[in-house]
Amino acid sequence: MAKRTANTGGRSYRQGPQRRAEILTRAIEVFAARGVGASLRAIGEAIGVSHAALRYYFASRDELLVEVYREHESRAECDAEPEVSAVDLMDRSALRNRAIPGLVELYATLTTDALQAGAHPVTREFVQERFRRVRADLAERVRAGQKAGTIAADIDPDDAAALVAAASDGLQLQWLLDPDGVDVRRSLAVLARLLPPTRGG
Amino acid sequence: MAKRTANTGGRSYRQGPQRRAEILTRAIEVFAARGVGASLRAIGEAIGVSHAALRYYFASRDELLVEVYREHESRAECDAEPEVSAVDLMDRSALRNRAIPGLVELYATLTTDALQAGAHPVTREFVQERFRRVRADLAERVRAGQKAGTIAADIDPDDAAALVAAASDGLQLQWLLDPDGVDVRRSLAVLARLLPPTRGG
């Protein structure tokens, strides 16, 4: 692999991919604990990386935010066996997210940014593609429950998948705003009455 | 009522409350059709109100956004008879919102802004208070369904209320991002199997 070298403000950045990965790691840590910075400069200060270095690796705040979330998801063990029900999958995710509210905030920021008329294409494409992938995965799990006979056969798997993804997102948002007023897992358990796991547990 | 007068940039603003209401009306119209502007100045340009006038009536973009949404909700007929089920209430709201995607975007912006570490207190308080009010209303409707015998007695009304509010918010967000991929009302109808209306229809 050819080394990338750039001269930005008098410093040269060698071993680009490795340094880029280090920056993403640091950003994931800081975002998880303290939330998302308002500008690329503020993020650089928070994660202890010069603004010049950050700009070398990421063209914009939008691109950095997408890459941080993408990297976080690829590291988190988001894959689960096909036997795990749609609701249980969201429940596991909610459990993991309790420890990293700043990354839930980052996710909410990305989805809201994607809605704006002037949204960066990288944000909009990432969020749209992610929702399609999540819904397809959840719909497959609903179909598995229908095959196993635990979920009513006349529920449309795609409608149910969008519902489960929405419930999970919306509940985590309410929980962030009012941790004592909302219990994500208990509310998801209500939904599990309609879309129960295939195996007990 | 005493008239407020201010001299900003050589123009005086009389009849403050009336002019303020006109500005909110115009902002609701423009936001509904075109979404939320990125800055107070951009919003002023979009709604055809000078930046100085906007700043006279609203201390910040945050305050304007909250007031626009508050005013929109007070004008929309959001009150419904107690017989309307929790899910049907969200369904009515989703139906209304189809025509005003920019105000759904404004709502998503307010909730995401409220999460940020540096959130304006006016935004955070508005969003938190609104969620509490919406959940309390929905929980009351779930209790009514339980009294009428249509909803299982062992479902916690508060857990169900948070679930219904979350599903509604999350589905509308997915619909904005992918209008052909998500049908809010069909997904809400899946949830209505668990939390059906008291009266048929």
From TrEMBL, chains A, B:
Q: What is this protein called?
A: TetR family transcriptional regulator
* DNA-binding region of this protein: 39-58
Please list the coiled coil stretches: none
Protein source organism: Allonocardiopsis opalescens
Q: Where is the HTH tetR-type domain?
A: 17-76
Molecular function terms in GO for this entry?
DNA-binding transcription factor activity; transcription cis-regulatory region binding
Please, which domain of life does this record's source organism belong to? Bacteria
Keywords, ordered alphabetically: DNA-binding, Repressor, Transcription, Transcription regulation
